[in-house]
Design goal:
The chain is mainly β. It has strands spanning about 5-10, 15-25, 30-35, 40-45, 50-55, 60-70. It is about 0% helix and about 65% strand.
Length: about 70
């Protein structure tokens, strides 16, 4: 099974966890974001509508934006 993991920052709603307080883990069945200061999210493939590149401030806030069907 192929997996990918990355340590960085995360913005969940209006809350922000800066580097290195967030971890992203992806495999064929799950996408997990562990941002211990802000919250933890687990997505299944059917929960995700799209994943797009995202930048709030050029060269500083680069990342991805996950559009999903999870209520909270």
């Amino acid at each position: 099974m192929k997996t990918f993991s990355l340590t960085g920052g995360a913005r969940i709603g209006r809350a922000n966890a800066t580097y290195p307080f967030a971890n992203l883990y992806v495999d064929e069945n799950t996408l997990k974001i562990n941002a211990s200061l802000v919250g933890n999210l687990i997505f299944q493939p059917q929960d995700i509508i799209s994943i797009k590149p995202y930048s709030s401030v050029p060269f500083i806030g680069k990342g991805i934006k996950i559009l999903h069907r999870v209520e909270n």
